[in-house]
Amino acid sequence: MADHDERDVLAAGLSGALTPFGHRLMARVYYADTDFSGVVYHARYLEFFERGRSDFLRLAGVHHTELHDGKHGEKIVWVVRRMEIDFRGSARIDDVLTIDTRTDDISGARIYMAQQLKRGDEVLVEARVEAAIVGENGRPRRFPKEWIAAFMPGRCDRARSSRIGSCDNR
């Protein structure tokens, strides 16, 4: 196998996959993720969720580097405005976890996402995230219309078929 072919094969699963509901990412718990007892340290779950959101963005065609470089007219960044987390169970070293991310709503400059971290079918942690995009000046920027279809799979089709709502920003 040529080097570039091997790299493509290895990288294919690196960012997880888009799903009918949003995005799914698999991750293993490493020693560095745990406290002295081998249980995942509570703050590390934020990092697992961040990876899920970032890879969702990447696979949906929104790249942090392009945002930073001003591809959309000005430099913009994502900021987390609010996060609620419910801890239901603990992950342990060597567990293989699934991080599911879906978009619940998009309004103006804000996106509302729901995330679950599971071991097999067992939900260990759930999070609700409100994020926004802001310009270099720190002010909110309206969510680009072309991103709505990418972040809310099926929303535009449902809106057209039911003739209620649209894919326009509110």
Give a written overview of the molecule.
By secondary structure, the chain is α+β, with helices and mostly antiparallel strands. Helices cover 28% and strands 33% of the residues. It is built from five helices and six strands; from the N terminus they run αββααββββαα. A hairpin with a 2-residue loop joins β4 and β5. The protein is globular and about 45 Å long.
Report the helical percentage.
25-40%
CATH topology: Thiol Ester Dehydrase, Chain A
* Biggest sheet overview: 6 strands, antiparallel
Low-confidence stretches at least 5 residues in length (pLDDT < 50)? 157-166
- The CATH class is Alpha Beta
Structural class category: alpha+beta
Radius of gyration: 18 Å
Number of domains: 1
So how many helices?
A: 5
Question: What's the architecture in CATH terms?
Answer: Roll
- Strand fraction equals 25-35%
Descriptive key words:
alpha+beta, Thiol Ester Dehydrase, Chain A, six-stranded antiparallel sheet, single chain, 170 residues
Lay out the secondary structure.
Elements: H1 3-12, E1 17-18, E2 23-28, H2 44-59, H3 64-69, E3 76-87, E4 96-107, E5 110-119, E6 122-135, H4 145-151, H5 155-162
Antiparallel strand pairs: 1-2, 2-4, 3-6, 4-5, 5-6
Describe the structure concisely.
The protein is α+β, with helices and mostly antiparallel strands and 170 residues long. It is built from five helices and six strands.
